[in-house]
Design goal:
Shape of chain B: globular
Oligomer: heterodimer
Low-confidence stretches of chain A: none
Shape of chain A: globular
Number of strands of chain A: 11
Number of helices of chain A: 0
Distance between the termini of chain B: 32 Å
Helix content of chain A: under 10%
Largest sheet of chain B: 7 strands, mixed
Structural class of chain B: mainly beta
Order of helices and strands of chain A: EEEEEEEEEEE
Number of helices of chain B: 0
Low-confidence stretches of chain B: none
Mean pLDDT of chain B: 93
Radius of gyration of chain A: 14 Å
Helix content of chain B: under 10%
Largest interface: A-B, 22 and 27 residues
Strand content of chain B: over 45%
Radius of gyration of chain B: 13 Å
Distance between the termini of chain A: 41 Å
Largest sheet of chain A: 6 strands, mixed
Chain lengths: 113, 114
């Protein structure tokens, strides 16, 4: 079945360093890849997404890259700040329709001052 | 936040009792979803709806049923709750087939089955 693998499961960085989270997906027909940030006790919130017709997208300190041939995509956070501490989820849209998303298991990012 | 509410926000119940969770949206979005979130598993799809009275199973549907009698409401029912259904449940909505694909989440319901 459709699957998304996410690594690492936990990531600890110093404030100001960069953080990279990687995901691989199994469905070669998938064409939409969102990233969600979930703070403790809150709902997941969309922070950036990428469609298969582009290889990279940036929004201030965050960027996402996509390699369709290898079926992997990554989230890059530069100049990390303590408020970036959260759980991050990647997802891939199912080719089965209905805008269904397949989620990775999540990465807990801790940014230490 | 998109206009999505969930009720109740917290519930403690006993094994074997029926439980219904409600998701309400004011965005008039076509698609609605129920997920459960457990440590180490991310968000797993329970059921989804693609219109009034149109629903289908997700990857972890056993023990759950859903109903959607109005565009704005999507109900999740645990017919006979078990301890394995202790989880945080999120509802989500999405607008259109073929894009935009974004899903927006409700605030979640924390369910504890004793």
């Amino acid at each position: 079945g459709e699957n998304v693998e996410q690594h690492p499961s936990t990531l600890s960085v110093q404030e100001g360093d960069s953080a990279v989270i990687k995901c691989t997906y199994s469905d070669s027909a998938s064409n939409y890849f969102p990233w969600y940030k979930q703070e403790l006790g809150k709902r997941p919130q969309l922070i950036i997404d990428i469609r298969s017709n582009v290889g990279e997208k940036k929004d201030q300190r965050i960027a996402v890259t996509l390699n369709k041939t290898a079926k992997h995509f990554s989230l890059h956070i530069t100049e990390t700040q303590p408020e970036d501490s959260a759980v991050y989820f990647c997802a891939a849209i199912s080719s089965g329709g209905y805008n269904k998303l397949i989620f990775g298991a999540g990465t807990r990012l801790a940014v230490h001052p | 936040d998109a206009g999505i509410t969930q009720s109740p926000r917290h519930k403690v119940t006993e094994t074997g009792t029926p439980v219904t969770l409600r998701c309400h949206q004011t965005e008039n979005h076509r698609y609605m979803y129920w997920y459960r979130q457990d440590p180490g598993h991310g968000l797993r799809l329970i059921h989804y709806s693609y219109g009034v009275k149109d629903t289908d199973k997700g990857e972890v549907s056993d023990g759950y049923s859903v109903s959607r009698s109005k565009t704005e409401d999507f109900l999740l029912t645990l017919e006979s709750a078990t301890s394995s259904q202790t989880s945080v449940y999120f509802c989500a909505i999405s607008a259109l087939a073929g894009g935009p694909y974004e899903q927006f989440f409700g605030p979640g319901t924390r369910l504890t089955v004793l």
